[in-house]
Write a structure and sequence with these properties.
Signal recognition particle alu RNA binding heterodimer, srp9/1, 4 helices, alpha+beta, single chain
Length: 139
């Protein structure tokens, strides 16, 4: 199997409205590096942004590929600083279900496939830092 340099075996691909603004957000506010941008007229049909050791891909949403919700983790050196930069760029912090850091493994949620794969200790291990979640809406 060949995985291109800068990519991982799983690579997020975002279909977003306002692709150019999203690229600017990833680069300016989250420290990414734009690797490439293919356009068709003024529509971004494919772009790649390097974030740390991973590359994400994205394009402007279309009728064939509408914008869709996604959840991704971004590991950063300083979560508070990254959150401040993101909020300063127009992101909003979402309230989490709990701001307490668990001190023992949580039981798996109902229907969790981890029961079958016996990976509870990995998937439901205590978190080492408070989770941060934000949404970005281009202005």
């Amino acid at each position: 199997m060949r995985v291109p340099p800068g990519f991982n075996t799983v690579t997020p691909y975002f279909f977003v409205e306002g692709a150019s603004a999203f690229i600017d957000f990833l680069v300016r506010d989250l420290g990414g590096t734009e690797v490439l941008r293919h356009v068709n007229g003024d529509r971004i049909v494919n772009a790649q942004v390097q974030l740390g050791s991973s590359t994400v891909m994205l394009s402007e949403a279309s009728s064939a590929f509408p914008a869709m919700a996604a959840a991704n983790y971004l590991y950063v050196e300083n979560a508070d600083d990254a959150m401040s930069r993101a909020i300063g760029a127009g992101a909003t912090q979402q309230p989490s279900a709990s701001t307490e850091v668990p001190t023992s493994p949580r039981p798996p949620p109902p229907g969790c496939p981890c029961r079958e794969c016996r990976a509870q200790a990995l998937c439901h291990a205590p978190q080492r830092s408070r989770p941060r979640r934000f949404e970005h809406s281009p202005s």
